[in-house]
Amino acid sequence: MDVNPLANPKGVKLLCELCRIPAFIQCKGCKVTYYCSREHQKADAVGIHDKVCSRLALLRQPVQFWPSKEEREKRYKAMQLEKIELIEMARTLAQKMLFEGKHEESVPAAMLSLRYAIDVYGVSTIELVPSYLIMAEASIGLGNLVQAEEYLAKADWTILKTPDCTKAIKSRLYRNLGLLYVAKGDFQEALVNFADDIYNSSHEFGTDDIRTSGGYFHMANVFFRQGRRDIADSMYKQVISIWYEYLNHTLTVNISAQEDESRRKSKMLNSAKTLMEEISSGLDEAQEAEAIQILSSIHNIKEHQPDRQSKDLAQTCHNLAMLYFLMGDLNKAKEYGRKSIVASDQVKDDKFSKSLVEFMKLCERQIVSN
Amino acid sequence: MALPTINKRKVSLTQSQRQMRPVIPLEPENPKGLREKLMYRKSVDIMNKLPILRKLDIDKFRNSYKHNLCLDMLTTGFHMSFCELVTLIRQQMERREAAGPESFLWTKPLLQDQRPKLDLLKYYTTKAESANREDNIEEEYTARYELAQSYTHDPDDQWLADHFFSTCLEVARRQDTAESRMLAEGLCNVGVCLQKNHHYREAAKHFESYHKLSLNHEDDWKLQNGVSFYTDSCVKLFAIYTIIGLELGRSVDDNDNEASLQMLIQALEMSKKSQDKKLEGEASYNLGLAYQKVNELDNALTHLYTFYKACQGDSDNEGTGQACDAIAKIYARQGNKEMSVEFLKRFVELTEKTGLEREYCLACYNLGNVCNSVGNYDEATEYFSKAYNISRVLEDPLSTNINRVQYGIAVAHRMMGKFANHVLIGDRLCVTRLLHWKSCKRAEFDQLIPDTDPRAALNILLPPLLTEKDKETDERKEERAEGDESASDDEQHHASAHFVT
C-alpha cells in the first residue's frame, strides 16, 4: 500500500515524473512536476524539463470552469493543440539526443512524449508508435535488448492493426528493428529489416531523399561488419551523394536568396556590403544531428580505410563542411573544407574542385563579415 | 535508470530463454480420459516442431511480389538496381497518371504486376551492378544491352528499351578509350530509339557521332551479318536525313524548303558512301522532287535521271515507272511536250508489261492529259478510254468518275473542229445534220461536207492548258458538272451523251 503524504490534497497521488513511484520533491519552476529523488530530477532536467517547464505549468494547471459549452470546447481544443506541439517537440529532442549518442538523456523526453500521446490519442493508436520507436532505440543504445524488443513488438502490432498507416512510420519501425538485430548480432535478419526500411521510405519520399539515406547507411554498416567491403563502399557512396545533392542544392538556394535580399537592401539603403544573415539548412534538429552522425562516421571509416577512393573522402569532407556552414559553425566548416581540398588533390574533377574553391571563398567572406 | 515496462509484469527472461521458450497450447482444464491427454501431448509436439518464423517467411505471405523482389535485391546489396527499378515503376505510374484513366495507356498492364518482366529486370540489372562493382565495363554493357534487346520486340515496352539503351551508352562513355566499338554501338542504338520516338534531330546527332567513330574502323568493326559499322552508319544517316528533309519539305516556309534541300543533299552523299545503288537512287528521287518543288527543274531532271538509270540497272520496274512519271511531269512543266509524251509512253509501256494495273491507269491518265493539252485529241481519247476501262475493272469509284469525265471531254474536243465547221458553213445539209445530232445524239459530222470553209478551224476554242497544280480542282469541277443535267454548253452536252453509251 502506498503512503499518501499528508501535505497533499486528499485523493491526489503525487508520482515521480520518471519512475512513477510516490514523489517527495517538487520542481520549483513549474510547481506541477514531482520526483522521487534528486537524481531523477536532475536526469529529467537535463533530458527535457528545462525546455518545457513553463509549458507544463500551463498544461497541468487545474481545469478552470467556463460557463458556456462553446467556451469549454474551445479551451479544450486549444489545450489539445498545445499538447500535440509538446509531443512533437519532445520527440524531436529525443531523436536528436539519440543521434548524438546520448541514449540515457533521451529517455525522459521520449517518456514525456509517450505520456502525452496516450493522453491525446488514447491507448494503442498509431500515433503512439513514434514514441515507442524512440524508446526502443534508447533501450538498444542502453543495451537493454529485451526491453527494446517489447517496445518494438508493441509498435509492430499497432502498425499491423492499422492497415492505412503511412509508409514513413513503417520505414522507421523497420529501421529500429534492424538496429535491434544488429545489436543482437543477427546480421541477416537486420539486412531484411533495413531493406524493408529502404523500400518503404523510397516509396514515401523517393530513392534519393535524405530520409532514405539513413537506411542505406545502416545497411552499409552491416555489410561493412560482414566484411563485404565492395557493397558497403557502394552504399556509402550513395549516402554521400544523396547528402551532397541535398546540401549543395540548399546552399545554392540560400545564397541566391541572400543575394536577392542584399540587392534589394542595397538599392534601398545604398550599401554595397553583402551579408549573409540568415542561413537555414531546412532540416530540423534531429535531422541535423542525424546528418552529422552519418557523415562523420562515414568520414571516420573512409579516413582509416587505406584503399579508399580519394574522391569519396573529399566529397564526405565537403558535405560536412557544407553542413556545418549551414548550421552556422564556420570554424568547423573551414576545417573540413581544408580537409576536402587536401583529399581532392588526386581527384581529376574540375567541376568538383571549382565548387570547393568557391565554397571556401564563401566561408572566408562569411567569417570576415561576422 | 530503468525504463518503464509496457506490461506491469517484470520481464526477467533473458534473450536465449526467450528464443528457446516453446510455445505451449492451453491445457484443457480437466482432461477427460486418456484420449484428450494424448491429443494435448500431440499438439504440443507439433507446435514444438514448427519452425520459428523469420521476417522473410512472413513477408512471403504478407507482401506483394514486387515488394519481396525489392527486399531480395536490397539484402543481397544491389541497391542501385533497386533504385533503377523503383524509378522505372514510378515513371510508368506518372505517365499513366498524366494520360488519365480514359487513355490508351491506362489499359496496358503495369510493370509492377508483370512477374516475368520483373524477374528479367532483376536478373540483368543485378548482373550489371556486380560487373560495375568489379569495374568490368564490358560485362555491364552486355547485361544492359541484352536487357534492352529483350524489350525491342514489344512496342509497349519501347520506353524500357529506350532507358536501357541510353544507360548502355552511359556505360560505354565511362570507358577510358575515346574510340570504342561499344560506344559506337551505344550511339547507334540510342539513335534508333530516338528515331522511333520521332526525335529526329537528336537521332541525327547520335548517328553523326556513330558515323565519325566508325570512320576509322571501317575494316574491323562488323555487324553480325558482316556489314561494317561504317556502311550501317551511312544507311542510318541516309534514312534520318531523308526523314528530316521530307518533313521540312512539307512546310510552307521558304527557309525550311532550303534546309530540306540541304538535308536531302546530305542524304544523297550518305547513300553514295554506303555504296548501295538502290539507296542512292531513292535519295536522288527525293532530291529531284524537292528541286522540282522549288522550281529548279534542271537540277531536278539530273537527279531524276540518276534514279531512272539506277532503277533500270536494277530492273526495278516500279521504280522506273515512278521515275518516268516524275520526269514526264517536269518536261510538261518546262513545256517540252514531246519529251514528256515520250516518257509517259515509256511509263505506259512499262506498266502494261508488268501488269501493275493501278500504275497503268495513272500512266494512261497522265498521258491522256498531256495529249489533250497538246491538241492531239485522237490519242487523248484513246488513252482516256484505256484509263476509264481499267479503273472500271479496278472498281475504284473515284478514279472511274474522273476518267469518265476526262474521256468525255477528250471526245468532245475531238468532235469540236468538225462541229464548228458545220455551224460555220450552215447550209442545208449541215443544219440537218446538226438538228439530227441534237435530237438523237448520233454524230454524223465525220462524213464529208461538199464545200468546206477553211476559216472555220480558226474559230475553234482550244481548252485551257491543264497545269499539274490545278488539275485537282479541275477534276472536282468536272465531277460536279457531271451531275448537272441541264448543261447548256454544247460540248458538255455532247460529252454527257458519251457517258451514257
UniProtKB/TrEMBL annotation, chain A:
MYND-type domain mapped to chain residues: 16-53
Domain of life from the UniProt record: Eukaryota
PROSITE patterns: TPR, ZF_MYND_1, ZF_MYND_2
Keywords: Metal-binding, TPR repeat, Zinc, Zinc-finger
SMART domains: TPR
TPR repeats, residue ranges: 171-204
Signal sequence bounds: none
Gene3D superfamilies to which the protein is assigned, alphabetical: 6.10.140.2220, Tetratricopeptide repeat domain
InterPro entries the UniProt entry points to: TPR-like_helical_dom_sf, TPR_rpt, Zinc_finger_MYND_domain, Znf_MYND
GO molecular function, one term: zinc ion binding
One Pfam family matching this protein: TPR_8
Protein name in the entry: MYND-type domain-containing protein
Automatic annotation (TrEMBL), chain B:
InterPro entries: Bac_ResReg_Asp_Phosphatase, TPR-like_helical_dom_sf, TPR_rpt
Key words, A-Z: Cytoplasm, Repeat, TPR repeat
Classification via Pfam families: TPR_8
Top-rank taxon, per record: Eukaryota
Region (Disordered): 467-501
GO annotation terms (biological process): cilium movement
Annotated transmembrane regions: none
Cellular compartment(s): Cytoplasm
Record-level GO cellular component terms: cilium; cytoplasm
Comp. bias regions, Basic and acidic residues: 467-480
Annotated function: Axonemal protein which is implicated in axonemal and/or peri-axonemal structure assembly and regulates flagellum assembly and beating and therefore sperm motility.
Name this polypeptide is given: Tetratricopeptide repeat protein 29
Organism encoding this protein: Candidula unifasciata
